[in-house]
Each structure stands twice: as structure tokens, then as C-alpha cells.
Design goal:
Blueprint lengths: L1 H24 L20 E6 L9 E5 L4 E4 L4 H14 L8
Antiparallel strand pairs: 1-2, 2-3
Length: 99
């Protein structure tokens, strides 16, 4: 009987330790990129972008297309930098005018 109590106590302590360590880890990044789109996307096909979390192993930019898809791109690529500049300029109120 004492051996059963000891085994149960050890099991409960192990489960508590695992639960605690999993809780301290926190939620991981929602989206990371491991393959990248190397084909330049026209600026009229992209409506937005987000940068992936710093906790991802590779830095990336997720480009949102007019079709609602997300494509991974390298933030160091010249065309991606130009596209980000274009999108940022579009999103600033008063930056562009129809006059």
C-alpha cells in the first residue's frame, strides 16, 4: 500500500512539473516562414504585410495578396523593401492625394 502511495505521489509531482514548465514556455509564434517566394510580386497584387515574430528561426515578411493569401518573402530582398515602402506610403493618411 505504501509503494502505491509513493508511486502515485511521484506521478502527481511529475505531472505538476510538466504542467508548470509548459505554462512558463508561453505560446509560440503564430506564423513562421521556412520557404520563401522568390518571384517578385507586383505592388497592385499586395494589400498588406506583417513581419513574423522574432522568435521564428528565419526573419520573414508575410505579404497579403488581393486574393487573401499570405506569401512568405525575405525582408532583405530589394523588391520586398520597395513593396513595404510602397505599402507604408499608401497607408499614411494625407500622404497621397487625388487632387
Amino acid at each position: 500500500m505504501a509503494a502505491a502511495r509513493l508511486a502515485l505521489s511521484v506521478l502527481v509531482l511529475m505531472l505538476a512539473a510538466v504542467t508548470l514548465t509548459e505554462g512558463l514556455r508561453g505560446a509560440g509564434p503564430k506564423r513562421c516562414c521556412f520557404r520563401f517566394n522568390e518571384i517578385e510580386m507586383p505592388s497592385d497584387r499586395v494589400v498588406g504585410y506583417i513581419r513574423t515574430s522574432q522568435r521564428c528561426s528565419k526573419p520573414a515578411v508575410l505579404l497579403k495578396t488581393v486574393a487573401g493569401r499570405h506569401l512568405c518573402a525575405r525582408p532583405s530582398a530589394a523588391w520586398v523593401k520597395n513593396l513595404i515602402d510602397h505599402l507604408d506610403a499608401k497607408s499614411v493618411p494625407g500622404e497621397t492625394s487625388n487632387l
